[in-house]
Design goal:
With about 270 residues, the protein is of the alpha+beta class. It has one domain (about 60-230, about 240-265): Double-stranded beta-helix (4-Layer Sandwich), CATH 3.60.130.10. It has helices at about 25-40, 50-60, 130-135, 140-145, 205-220; strands at about 5, 15, 40-45, 70-75, 75-85, 110-115, 125-130, 150, 175, 180, 190, 195-200, 225-230, 235-240, 245, 255-265. The longest helix has 15 residues, at about 205-220.
């Protein structure tokens, strides 16, 4: 049986149905992986992954990259607990960003499994960095192709949602190309984000700010985005080299619990 694919929008996202993630054949997994690379984010309803199945699925993509800022799920160090408490007015991931862009080999993909959802809200938005790169003017593209940008995890130190409290978790800043080539498909994507990018290599932060701010706005304009409305048991997988994402904080007074595994990537060129 093959996956049934329904595109979410013109530029990013697809819903996949017809198979269960905890019993995928090699052909089924290859179809999943190819859909991920094509659409940037894939959403599978009614999966209800338990922690063991979640870990097994992640290992088929590659080595698990244990996040050093999140609390792990009890008994499962590989799984990060993304928990919002009812009294919180800000949420984890509530700005546009790409997971682990601050690492020398940024994350390949993230696998998020819905565990407990609010009665409304809590959607996740995704923006295609491939569509953003394709839409750049020729002149701006030529300039960006010669630039690298600094990424750092320092923003976790100012987090208001309980992250970054352990100083030893932080690492030295790293530099990545502003326009990258996807390691598997060679497609070009814009690779800067407002959470973790600070400046261009050889530029001051003040000099970098106007262009970076423009790129953040340009890359996340609605035409490049999709919005995932979560349902019980749903799983979403996104490629952090191809998309940014944004967790919508519109359910204050209610709890939300997600389990996330991040799969390690490779240095970007």
């Amino acid at each position: 049986m093959e996956w049934v694919t329904e595109k979410l929008t013109g530029h990013v996202g697809a819903i996949l149905t017809g198979q269960q993630l905890n019993s995928l054949t090699d052909a089924g997994f290859n179809g999943l992986r190819n859909a991920l690379f094509e659409h940037g984010v894939v959403v599978m309803p009614d999966q209800y992954l338990d922690p063991e199945a979640h870990i097994d699925l992640a290992k088929r993509f590659g080595e698990i990259d244990v996040n050093r800022f999140f609390n792990p799920v009890d008994g499962y160090l590989e799984i990060a607990e993304v928990r919002t408490k009812p009294e919180m007015t800000q949420v984890i991931g509530g700005t546009w960003h790409s997971d682990h862009s601050y690492d020398p080999a940024p994350a390949m993909c993230s696998i998020l499994s819905a565990r407990a959802l609010p009665p409304y809200g809590g959607d996740t938005q995704f923006a295609s960095m491939v569509a953003a790169a394709d839409a750049l003017s020729p002149g701006l593209r030529r300039m960006l192709e010669g630039l690298r940008a600094c990424h750092t995890d320092a923003s976790f130190g100012q987090s208001k949602v309980g992250l970054g409290g352990e100083p030893t978790a932080h690492r030295e800043p790293v530099f990545h190309p502003v326009l990258i080539r996807h390691p598997q498909t060679e497609v070009q994507a814009l690779y800067v984000n407002g959470d973790f990018t600070t400046h261009f290599e050889g530029w001051s932060a003040e000099e970098s700010a106007p262009l970076l701010d423009y790129l953040y706005r340009f890359a996340t304009q609605p035409v490049f985005t999709c919005r995932v409305r979560w349902a019980p048991g749903m799983v979403a997988i996104w490629d952090n080299r191809l998309v940014q994402h944004y967790a919508t904080a519109d359910y204050s007074g209610h709890a939300r619990l997600m389990h996330r595994i991040t799969v390690a990537g490779q240095p970007l060129n």
